[in-house]
Amino acid sequence: MYAKLRLIFDNFTLILIGVVIAATVLPAEGNGAVFFEWLTRFAIALLFFMHGAKLSREAIIAGMTHWRLHILVFGFTFIVFPLIGWIFKPVLIPLLGVPLTIGMLYLCALPGTVQSAIAFTSIAKGNIPAAVCSASASSLIGIVATPVILNIMLDANAGTAGMADAIIDISLQLLLPFVVGHLSRPLTANFITRNSRWLKNVDQSSILLVVYTAFSSSVVSGLWSQVPPNALLALCVVCIVLLLIVLWLTRFLAQRLGFNRADEITIIFCASKKSLATGVPMAQVLFSGAMLGPALLPIMIFHQIQLMACAMMANQYALKAPDAEPSYS
């Protein structure tokens, strides 16, 4: 029983839940909130600097040529997901309320994950170079695409920053550190490779810090009075249904369009996932005040559900993989 629970809830998920509880019981206020806001900005810059430093140019070149795969992945990430959210918006508003519906639309507009998409592709024996290229490019495209898509889906700004200002702020806070990190690779690549195990803690700590700061602000503004337990339960169901729809569609289209097994795996794991690592800091820029918490809840729940579902799928693909791939020389 314990082993099964540990498979579903990893350490990071448990700590993430703990951070939300801490922000609920002891939210940062006054000068403390100002301190955490500046600390959060530094943490976000460091997070994206490290993302840029980790991405090798060889991986980019190796995966760039597979354009059919990338078009399908980006189509799901930035067109199909938002389209599903927009179509079901009239259903979501009475079911979840306006704040959580905006959070769901934000989730649909986000780019895909990087680390977990590549990890699951690797476990399932998919096309890893294509996954690296597709997932990394998705994060970069999302810096501009996400605020534009969100603005289109919302009738008004609804607590978000203006689109032009948001793109500029996101570029300065996310894209600039990413580019600087990538350009620093001649100096930093070896260090990051050697110390990747403990540097992962820097990534996760940055996300946790942003979550604490965002939820503190929302709790002070009355988050939990806006999100009753029945709406939270409904949100979990909506996230599960959304993931099931996209997983089925990605597999169906990958097979119908004639992609081989390795590419099918890459499409499924890159096109069905949404990035918590990008979504949390981006929400800090796009949303203000009481809207931060409701904007983050859907991506936090969806993140855990997608990890559980994709872990099981990756293991199933790995078990069914051929013992030896044919050699072409």
Chain-wise SSE layout:
Elements: H1 2-8, H2 11-25, H3 31-54, H4 57-64, H5 67-87, H6 89-96, H7 98-109, H8 115-123, H9 128-153, H10 163-183, H11 185-194, H12 196-220, H13 223-226, H14 229-256, H15 261-271, H16 276-286, H17 292-320
Helix pairs in contact: 2-12, 3-10, 3-11, 3-12, 4-9, 5-7, 5-9, 5-14, 5-15, 6-7, 7-17, 8-9, 8-15, 8-17, 9-10, 9-15, 10-16, 12-16, 12-17, 14-15, 14-17, 16-17
Task: Provide a short characterization of the protein structure.
The protein contains 17 helices and no strands. The protein is mainly alpha-helical and 329 residues long.
Written overview of the protein:
- By secondary structure, the protein is an all-alpha fold.
- About 80% of the residues lie in helices and about 0% in strands.
- It is globular and about 55 Å long.
- Mean pLDDT is about 80; it is low at about 1-10 and about 325-329.
